[in-house]
C-alpha cells in the first residue's frame, strides 16, 4: 500500500514537473528572421498568433503600420471572441467571401503590414498569401488561438513524425484491437441501391500490388486528401450537390526542401561555434521570414534532435516553399541552388558552410486552397449515404487544414457514427438483403472491420 502511495506521489511529482516543463516549453520564443535584421529577432514568449502579431510588429513594422495594425485588430471579431466566442465565430464565417487582404485593408491596415507580417503567417497557415486566403480562415484561427488557450501551443516534435506523432496514435489504435493495412490503396467504393432507391455502400475494393481485397463494415469512413476523395467518389454520386461540391476544392502545390550543412547555419553570435561539429548550436525554434521563398523553416537538428541531429554533421534546415507553384517545374538541383542562396542572404554568417546533403519533395496538391468563397463547398462528415462518412481536414471543421483540423474532423465523424448506432444496425440488414439479391458473387477475399 505504502509502495503504491509512494508511486502515486512520484507520478504526481513527475506530472507536476512535466507540467512545469511544458510551461517552460511554452515560454520559448518564436523567431522572425529578416534580411533587414540579419541577426535574427527573438521575441518574448508568443504562445499564440495574436501575441506573435504584436511581438513581430515591434521588430518588422514602422510605428505608422503598427498603429494601423492595432486599429484593424481592435475592429476585428477576434476582440468579440474574447467575450463571446460563438458570436464571433458566426461573424467570422460571414467573412468567407473576401480575402484577408481586402478585410484587413478595409479596417485600416496597411499593405506594408501584409507584406512584412501577415503574408508569412498566411503562408505558414495555408501555403497561400493574404490576397488569396479567405478572411474567414485567418480570423477563425486567430480567434481560436485567442480563446482556446489549451489549443494555442506552438511546438516542434522532438524527432520524426513517424515515431513521435503517428507512432503513439497507431499504438493506441492497435492496443484497442484496430488493425492497419498499410500500402493498401482503396480503389473503389462498392455500392448498391435498396428497393426504395437509397444508396448503400456495400464494401471498399482495395489492392496492394496484385493482391485484392474487399473490406466490409457497418460504417465506412473515408479520410483522404482532396485529390484522393475526388478520385475515389463514384461519378454517379456527383448527381448529389453534396458530393459534387467537393470538386470545387483544390489543393495547393508545396515544395519541402531539406539541406544538411557542415556547420551551424543559425548560430549568429559565435562564429567559432558555428564551425565546430561537437555540439549543436543556433536558433532552436520555428522560424519565419518575409524575405525568402520559404516563409516558415527550422533547423531540425536543433528543434527535433532525436532523429535529425547527427554527430559530426551540422544544421538540417527544413524549408517549406510557398507558394510552391514557381518551383514545381524546376529541377531539384536548381531548387537547392536557389534555396541555399536565400539561406545565405538570411544568415550571412553562414558564408563558407557547405550543403553536404539535400532532399526535395514536391507535392502538387497538398492542403486544400482556403480561398475566398470556398468554405460552403467543404462537406460535412455526415453524408447523404447513411453508412458512408467523410473525415480529413478539408471536411467541415473550424480549424484550418492542419493536424488539429484533421483530428477534429475525425472526432466529428466518430460522433456522427455513434449517433447513428441504431440506424446502422437497421442498415446492415438492408445491405444484407440487397446483397443476397445479387446473383453474381465476387471471388475476392473479404475482411471485416479493418482500417485501411
Ligand atoms: C509540407 C507540409 C508541412 C505541414 N506542416 C504542418 C504543421 O506543422 N502542423 C500542422 O498541423 N499541419 C501541417 N501540415 C498540414 C497537415 O499535414 C495536414 O493538414 C494534415 O496531414 C491533414 O490530414 P488528413 O488526414 O486530412 O490528410 P492527409 O494527411 O493528407 O492524409 C490523407 C491520406 O489519404 C491517402 N489516400 C488518398 N487516397 C487514397 C486511397 N484511394 N486509398 C488509400 N489512401 C488514400 C493519402 O495518400 C494520404 O496519406 C503540413 C503539410 C505539409 C504538406
From TrEMBL:
Pathway the protein takes part in: Carotenoid biosynthesis; lycopene biosynthesis
Keyword Oxidoreductase in record: yes
Annotated GO biological process: carotene biosynthetic process; carotenoid biosynthetic process
GO cellular component: chloroplast; chromoplast
Reactions catalysed, as given in the entry: 9,9'-di-cis-zeta-carotene + 2 a quinone = 7,7',9,9'-tetra-cis-lycopene + 2 a quinol
Domain Amine oxidase span(s) in chain numbering: 67-417
Chain intervals for the UniProt region annotation (Disordered): 1-29
Keywords, in A-Z order: Carotenoid biosynthesis, Chloroplast, Chromoplast, Oxidoreductase, Plastid
Enzyme Commission number(s) of this protein: 1.3.5.6
Protein origin, superkingdom: Eukaryota
GO molecular function: 9,9'-di-cis-zeta-carotene desaturase activity
Cell location: Plastid, Chloroplast; Plastid, Chromoplast
Listed InterPro entries: Amino_oxidase, FAD/NAD-bd_sf, Zeta_caro_desat, Zeta_carotene_desat/Oxidored
Pfam family, one: Amino_oxidase
Known function: Catalyzes the conversion of zeta-carotene to lycopene via the intermediary of neurosporene.
Sequence similarity: Belongs to the zeta carotene desaturase family.
Name of the featured protein: Zeta-carotene desaturase
Natural source organism: Salix purpurea
